[in-house]
Amino acid sequence: MSRFTRRQLLSAGLGTAAMGLLSGCATPGIRSVNTAPVLAPAASGEKITLTYWCWLKDAQKVADIWNASHPQVQVEVVWIPGGNAGGYQKLYSALAAGGGPDLAQVEMRSLPEFMLVNGLVDVARYGAQDYAHLYDQTLWGQVSFSGGVYGIPQDSGPMAMFYQPAVLDQVGGTNPGTWDEWAALARELRKKDVYLDCFPLGDASVFTAFAAQAGASWLRPEEDGWVINMTDDATMKVARFFDQAIDEDLVQTAFGAYSPGWFAAAAKGTIASVVSGSWGDALIEGVSGGSGKWRVAPMPTWDGSGFGSSYLGGSTAAILANSKHPREALEFAVWMTTSREGIDAEITNSGIGWSPSPDFIGTPRQAPSEFFGGQSYHQEIFVPAARQQNEDWSWWPVTQQSFNILSDGFRKKASGTSLVDSVAAAEQQIMTVFRNKGLSIRKEAS
């Protein structure tokens, strides 16, 4: 995992005017909150109220448990739309106006963009490193930059394969251990007019997760700017694989996982499986008549190379720059994401993804699942999956714009443009985006 400074994010000499271009709004101020004096804790006996903006449902019920035992530090939750669906724009606007909440839900992949606008408190200044041992170290690496900590891991999505055994049995198949075995099984299922899975051309995050599993690491910061390599062997292997899968009609591209079309096909047995994040289990339970018909297996691997799993999704509880009480906000964030009562409350009320604590997956996830045929899949599949991750993967500024570029290219597959060519073209466009925003970037030498 690359550790980089805010200076590296900006590249040497880049001023705050260029920072504002990255978020589409003015920066919160010339002076970074992280160069200002550390704020003192609330005075003894002083009652304070923290605000927490997030898109988790019923998160106030989680905060109420904290509130009952912390009368001097109360937390009020405000619901916002999910990230790029409007939530981030609200946060950027509030920051630019000198306001905003004490804490906010920010996806791990979006932290660098908030850092670029001086939007986040480096909570290492308030003792966050004292809690590092409580978290999965891969996730802690996703929030740590050159000695600073810019978010507290809240949940993640280690990946696995959810499948219907009875559908695979139609061709005498079993859950595949490798992607080559996956392709062979998909070919047999097509003879029965069944697709093994979808490939979403409009959502590059899935392809990105597959590439990370294969061992890719697309961007990294160095002192003189960013280095990009999206045409490495691992990425090209994944692109060629799914080019062939699409060309052979082995994957459904007319709709994506968890869409209305997907639910209908899954209920009919014409979609056999989905490789997805751990949070997919709750969505799969919405398949009509699906109880007892689904199981979970490890994610297929790239012929023994790469990693056993990958992450799809993942959020943090980040402390925003204009908070007057970052120390207390950090304490709440750590309680919510590591204590047994906090994790259980988040699962029960908000349906969070995988717990960031390596020592406690949550009480509701320890029992066998009736829907998944009595399988204790959280313990059997996702505990090891969370430990089989690509630690060298790190996120970069303008991640969402990069995904949009890649998705636009993938949509051209129907008109004959290969995924391989789209990835190469996207790399060039992403380099242009960086340079247009005043960020230094170069292609890694082969």
From TrEMBL:
InterPro entries tied to this protein: Bact_solute-bd_prot1, SBP, TAT_signal
SUPFAM superfamilies: Periplasmic binding protein-like II (SSF53850)
Protein name (record): Multiple sugar transport system substrate-binding protein
UniProt superkingdom: Bacteria
Keywords tagged on the record: Cell membrane, Lipoprotein, Membrane, Palmitate, Signal, Sugar transport, Transport
Annotated source species: Pseudarthrobacter oxydans (Arthrobacter oxydans)
Lineage, highest ranks first: Bacteria, Bacillati, Actinomycetota, Actinomycetes, Micrococcales
Protein's UniProt keywords contain Manganese: no
UniProt-listed Pfam families: SBP_bac_1
